[in-house]
Specification:
Blueprint lengths: L1 H40 L6 H7 L5 E10 L2 H5 L6 E20 L4 E11 L1 H4 L8 E4 L1 H10 L6 H14 L4 E4 L1
Antiparallel strand pairs: 1-2, 2-3, 4-5
Helix pairs in contact: 5-6
């Protein structure tokens, strides 16, 4: 007799615990987690989240490799370019957001990226290296000029490229 009563009580208690744990795990816990996430990611003035939004707490590494033309004079007279891969030039990029306006649901900001040359990581290369690069804008504009069927869009792009390309085949960077 005791076995039947004890078994019934144990089964009933087990069912109550299963139902209670299901309610807690599927109803209560998700609500608590959602509230915690909302409080942690909400952008409110003078909070850690806002500080992290305004200035990224770590620098990003930006690596640049350049194809240097070793014989630009020969190329201008029709020679074959001798191209050498130069680099890496390593820059550390920090990101900052300058908040211009903020209301309840919208933040208007301007992003400011700052690149600083890393001399140690870039060694033996430095910002003083003299490099000769292909001036892509110049070459595109000369190609478009020679095009027999020029469109209005090409003409507009050609005017822009002529202004910015400075009419030189190579860009000398120091």
């Amino acid at each position: 007799m005791c076995n039947i009563i004890c078994g019934g009580i144990t089964t009933g208690l087990g069912l109550v615990l299963v139902v209670a744990s299901c309610i807690v795990s599927f109803v209560v816990v998700p609500g608590i987690v959602d509230d915690i996430i909302k409080s942690e990611v909400q952008l409110i003035n003078n909070t850690e989240q806002m500080e992290r939004f305004e200035e990224v707490p770590f620098a990003l590494t930006f690596t640049v490799r350049i194809f240097n033309i070793s014989n630009p004079e020969e190329v201008l007279t029709g020679g074959i370019p001798i191209v050498k891969d130069i680099g890496p030039y390593i820059y550390r990029m920090t990101q900052r957001r300058v908040i211009e306006a903020m209301d309840e649901d919208t933040i208007t900001y301007r992003r400011v990226d700052t690149l600083v040359f890393d001399e140690q990581a870039s060694y033996p290369y430095s910002v003083e290296d003299r490099l000769t690069l292909v001036n892509a804008g110049y070459h595109v504009s000369t190609t478009l000029k020679g095009s027999s069927h020029s469109t209005c869009q090409q003409a507009s792009m050609l005017r822009w490229l002529n202004f910015h390309a400075r009419r030189e085949a190579f860009a000398l960077k120091a």
